[in-house]
Amino acid sequence: MLKPDDIQIRHRDLNWLSFNNRVLQEAEDPATPLYERLKFLAIFSMNLDEYFRVRVSQLRQMKRVEKSIRKKLALRPNQTVKEILREVKKQQEKFGKVYREEIIPLLEEKNIFLVHYDQYNDEQKEFAKKYFYKISSCIKPVVVESEKDGDLFLENNTLYLYVTFKGQDDFGIVNIPVEECGRFIYFSSETKEHKITFLDDIIKARISEVFKGREVDGMYEIKLSRDAELYIDDDLDGILAEKIYDSLEQRSEGQPTRLLYDSNMPQKDKKIIRKTLKLGKIDMMPGGRYHNFSDFFSFPDPTNNPELHYENLPPVKHKILEKSQDYFKEILKKDISVHFPYMAFDYVERFLQQAAVDKEVKDIKMSIYRIADESVVTSALLTALKNGKNVTVFIEAKARFDEKNNIDWGRKFEEEGAKVIYSYPKIKVHSKILLINRQEDGEIKSYAYIGTGNFNSKTSKIYCDHAIFTAQEKITTELSRVFEVLEGELIIPRSKHLLISPFSTRKAFTDMINRETENALLGKKAGITAKMNSLEDKEIIELLYKASNAGVKIRLLVRGFTCLIPGVENLSENIYMTSIVDRFLEHGRIYIFENEGDEEIYFGSADWMSRNLDRRIEVIAPIYDPEIAREFKDILDIQLKDNVKARIQDETESNQFVQRLPDEKPIRSQYEIYQYLKKKHSV
Q1: Which one of 129, 214, 260, 666 has the largest count of C-beta atoms within 10 Å of its C-beta?
Q2: What catalytic activity is recorded (predicted)?
């Protein structure tokens, strides 16, 4: 039996695989429309690529850290990587089975056929020949002498064919130029059957022309995952991160983390490519005939059959903002909430557009974590600059994989006269905040937008997020101090209402959890309900275990990984946790504390992760408007009652779906929330 002081913490990287398995469950689910099942396979594949590029790479770097530091951090990188690879192999096998035995036959039932090069008929062979000549300038074959190890460089997450030649020791490598040519090619057909082939197969069909004068013996697809940067400081505290950096030698850019290869590749060729790329056996991951399933996001549907896709959900029209020509006037009356993707991101864009042309607006300040390419947001900011507004934009230069795009936009804003501030060396800005200062009756009136999601119209269509527009002075004054910190004018922002990381968020959450614990021990009403993306912070977990043992009922909704183990006797038996993976990506954070019946409700950008509490600029806001508080509670309550797409998170990590009783109504929360908002905002 576990004792209360035996703090049980899961390894985040191992539990993340449990999350990705939930994504794979959606691809397995026959109730999911066929093309959406394909997209979940694509999401699974994309997630895994990033996981190896970042998390597994970091674990491997840890192997080079001094033993004394590894011991202090309780790091066991070798053992963890082995466990990861075992689980990934199992998931990859399930992935392949779903694709081959379920998806492909179902596509064929709908008269959609994926044709491999060895199945081409004469007409398709002729088509492949013409198409090959059309793209031949993009194909860059090389022949590698196998004994010259290290001469070969493969780009990160790029598809290649490893080609063997009869009677020869050397081998060929040919790129599959997906970025330039697309992955899927549609064969024109006059029949009801729709034939589609991979770009890979077009090249395979003409491989003799790629390597002229050689007799090809075998072709096997490979893909190498590399890391472009070491992301240690984002997950470990500053002092230890410095020690880790000091103990690491300067490594070469783009360290290989995984070679995915066709499992039909002969053993001798696996050995050759492994040695050529200077990989260890642990770096080798068997896969199927094709890789980069993230390309299935763009898989064509020549049938245009709506049954193969999710039903269309037109955005809910906000009863106030939809008809308003003056957002400032409406926000001044009362706080206004919006919820994506149930509502359109247009409301945020319109707010910025109004501010850009409003003669009374003096300042626009916002933090941007991931900038979309050309967008209404960027256009509005440029318009504001042309109209003489003071525009201050804080750009997170270290937003993983979006670094270049963010910096490029920062330069554009600077060229047009904006004050652009980039991220600090040891801290990220993850808050989603906007502040507009407007001249009204001889005074400056401030308007704020605080959200859980990025200022990105594209992701707003698939990420479930919440936001509030407010002109409450107690909120806007403190938000202004956050921007003063970002601009270097203030070191520590005083705050009574906002929780601001890394200054006050941890203490505030600690105090509120301790208060619930004390109330439970005194027999008072106590409870904690929280929704977030990930739960990792050890101090918070220990506090939650302590609260559970005191009798506090804790209900958690965590989409991604969790290091807390719920439902363990004498440790966390009063903690119940579920996770929802469905059509949209759950991204919002909501925190509710019972407080003896006088509930306190917060929302914002921070998870209960050490990096969000201690090493990022985050803003968590209280919800003071009673109507909006009720709305947030209703939405969260619907999600807590989900019995269609919710999985139970427990000690077993089995991802069992919540079971509903025979007479219980099915509740698929994302659709229920849509209907709830639609009803509330009907005019």
Answers
A1: 260
A2: [phosphate](n) + ATP = [phosphate](n+1) + ADP
Q: Are 342 and 476 in contact (CB under 8 A)?
A: no
Q: Is 22 labelled a binding residue?
A: no
Domains annotated for the chain, with CATH where assigned, are 34-308 (3.30.1840.10), 327-494 (3.30.870.10), 500-680 (3.30.870.10)
Q: Which of 94, 489, 531 is closest to 288 using CA atoms?
A: 94
Contact 12, 270 (CB under 8 A): no
611 is in an annotated binding site: no
- How is 150-191 classified by DSSP, letter by letter? T-----TT-EEEEEEETT-S-EEEEE--HHHH-SEEEEP-SS
**Rounded to whole angstroms, how far apart are CA atoms 528 and 199?**
52
Distance, CA of 311 to chain centre: 23
Q: Six-digit token pair at 319?
A: 């009863």
> If DSSP codes are grouped into helix, strand and coil, which group holds residue 113?
strand
Q: What is the mean pLDDT of residues 601-611?
A: 96
Residues labelled catalytic? 430
Q: What is the DSSP string of 496-527?
A: SSSEEETTTHHHHHHHHHHHHHHHHHTT---E
Model pLDDT for residues 488-545, shown as the tens digit of each residue: 888 889 999 999 999 999 999 999 999 999 999 999 999 999 999 999 999 999 999 9
70 is in an annotated binding site: no
Residue 462 in 3-state DSSP? coil
According to DSSP, residue 358 is labeled: -
Residue 374, phi then psi, degrees to nearest 5: -35, 125
> Which range is most confident: 189-198, 264-273, 426-435?
264-273
Q: Cα(547)–Cα(545) distance, rounded to whole angstroms?
A: 5
Is 647 known as a binding-site position? no
Two tokens at 193?
A: 């059957």
Residue range 267-284, pLDDT digits in tens: 999 999 999 998 888 889
| Residue 261 assigned as binding residue | no
Which of 167, 164, 172, 171 shows the shortest CA–CA distance to 141? 172
The full DSSP string for 625-647 is -HHHHHHHHHHHHHHHT--SSEE
Distance CA 268, CA 258 (A): 19
Does the annotation place 245 within a ligand binding site? no
Instruction: Enumerate the β-bridge partners of residue 441.
Output: none
Rounded-to-integer distance, Cα 311 and Cα 615, Å: 41
Q: Are 413 and 377 in contact (CB under 8 A)?
A: no
| Average pLDDT along the chain | 90
Over residues 330-355, mean pLDDT = 97
Determine the pLDDT at residue 336: 98
The alpha helices in 322-402, defined as continuous H runs, are 327-333, 346-357, 376-386
Alpha carbons 574 and 271: distance in angstroms, whole number: 52
pTM of the predicted model, to two decimals? 0.91
Taking alpha carbons only, the member of 75, 48, 73 closest to residue 60 is: 75
Is pLDDT above 50 for 15?
A: yes
